[in-house]
Amino acid sequence: MICWDRVGDHLVLGFFDQAEVDRLRGYLVGLREVLDARFAEYTTDCPPGKKLGVAYPLAETGDRRLRAILRRRVGEVGPWREPEVFRPLHKAITRVLATLPDKGGLVQLHSIDCAGAWSRSLTDLRVAMAASAREAEPVLASRTRFTTRWLKSVVRTLDATATKEVQPVPQDLVDSINQVRTYWI
Question: What is the pLDDT of residue 52?
Fold first, then answer.
């Protein structure tokens, strides 16, 4: 089970057990590999031999997971919208993988941007897994639905924690602490 807490203005802490970290790392590495394979299909050449300067796909992706992510992010599937969705997702996944601990335990997100990368990566991972489960055998589909619900819960609680307003310490508590400090010091 994951639990998130916010410390100060920017630090968000999460706690995962080892199996959750391993599973999450495996899923994210897999999605990043799917994106890398798609990027390998991109080209900078236009049909008449002109250069675009930026790599783009020439045709729509046939991967149902990537198509589901595109539909969720931009509402349509088409090759010209892919880079604006997939490049930031790849970057977000890399950022999440860099913050995952090696042996489970404490996850430290040192900025709201990092929490946003987590939210984006896990949401798109959930969408991709749900699209994959639609055509899977019943046992695998059931397990995938469990995982997608877990991912949704992780994102929902992370978003709630990362966006909650930081409460100031009540002045009477500050005064009490200061009195104790002056008495004992």
Answer: 61
